[in-house]
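Predict fold of Metallo-beta-lactamase domain-containing protein; 338 aa.
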Amino acid sequence: MTPEALLHPTPAGLYCAPGDFYIDPVAPVDRAVITHGHADHARSGHGSVIATEETLAIMAVRYGEEFTARRTALAYGETTNVNGVGLWLAPAGHVLGSAQAVIEFGGLRMVVTGDYKRRRDPTCPAFEVVSCHIFISEATFALPVFHHPDTGGEVRKLLASQQQFPERTHLVGAYALGKAQRVIRHLREEGYDRPIFIHGALDRLCTLYESFGVNLSPLLPATLKDSSGEKTDFSGEIVICPPAAIQSTWARRFPDPVPCFASGWMRIRQRAKQRGVELPLIISDHADWGELTDTVEAVDPDELWVTHGREDALIRWAELRGRVARPLHLIGYEDDHD
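Predicted 3D structure, encoded as tokens:
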């Protein structure tokens, strides 16, 4: 069987014909394999879903009663048989529960990374290199300009700014799933033991992370009054919120706030300027250029298929090194969560 016969793009998403299942489909399907819980990969409306326990829990929290699918939880490394096709999941290092989908059939192994990163993340298992014939990689930051600095160093920038401006509130825009919890956990690792205030939109997912053993406490709601009814003084405090909240009327309650944004896109100064970000924090949940190319070298596949981003540069890099590479041109995926 050719790789294209085993796995190929369709309008609904990447489809495994022998197994009759889709990976991260963009439309409702009978059987879906979900790599992680971000909304552009994990949609509601599927008949059945195969994913890690954590991803299924994230989908249940995010979709509530809309998440009616039959659910099969797979632990990392656990193999299931789907219509004769072997399927197992390997850590992707992207967010809690994120996984690479490993498909095996007729002596052929294909790996679909979903979104991934290679640097340490205290909120989820590290990416695992899986040798394969066909490696299907994301390419969100697949340009040489994207080199993400040390995450600890970026968090220390935030703490230094807090010390420099003790009268101001630092509003940190961070995506609700993965980025917010990672920033909080890194703050804790840097010795920040004061309460961290969070926007209400982050509460359920932070609670879920803690239920899976990721310690984020102490967290407090970023409300105008505390539990005793006293007005909250946010001077000198760190508040984590969705990126869109930084420019909303909600942000006006804080004293002279310092707008911060945690994203790999903060490497591009114009993006920071457009968003009105005073303190850009280059913290990404995706692989940067070096991580992408190092991963391809480590996996050493017969063919590289590229999707979800800047395909051309990564394909050109691979071809210059004698590798077979091609774009997939999948549609329906966004990079808003970074």
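The chain has two domains: 3-145+286-327, 151-281.
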